[in-house]
Design brief:
alpha+beta, globular, binds biotin
Amino acid sequence: MIIRINETQSTNDFLNNLSKKQNLENKTILITDIQTKGKGQQNNYWESEPYKNLTFSIFYKNLNIEIQKQFYISMAASLGIIDFLNSLKIKAKIKWPNDIYVENKKICGILIENNILKNKIQSSITGIGLNVNQTVFLKTTKNPTSLKLIKNQEFNTDGLLDKLIENIDNKFIFLLKKDFAFLKENYLNNLYLLNKIHTFTIGNKKITAKIIDIEENGKLIIQDNNNVTSKYFFKEIIIT
Ligand code: BTN
């Protein structure tokens, strides 16, 4: 079921509140043209010019995934978006943990919020912001791009939605089948900077290292030039 609303602060919040008030069917989607207080990761603001982009959230229930495996939800969502962009002949990569990049610019953000019961994720709200026809962004928005900036053409946002949802659903099937190995392998295959020497910021230190793997709890594993490996949670390390 797709619920359309003209305007809301955040589709994630709206759908979450709705799921507490009524029994939503699995894969209920809530989409808006005007999101006034879009939430990004780490309390950031998600910028989206009214009517230009896709801002929506999907409610998945009966997931029954252990908390320590929560990162597989991110992997499934990211991989679905990568497939969708590939179908438009756009080469995209996942910047850990779940930013979708085209070259060195961000085209899509994902915010996943889980409901946990008895140590398991029961339901989950996957919020997606895909930049479609927006070409001018706030100065505070880091490295943005959009389908229009890449392809030089206007897109019909509604026309893109069905395909995008289908691509995401196809990856959530692997979650339900608990085929975690498939998700991880695919995630690594599509990971930006995998095995490439790069600069990372950890606290006030800069180090040169390469990403070599990801743990299922989402930790990033890097190896420096002395072959020493270390692991970081999101927020502990910045890929500069
Ligand atoms: C990020 O990259 O920081 C995550 C951005 C997520 C934005 C989407 S837009 C639809 C949904 N509703 C929200 O409030 N946020 C997500």
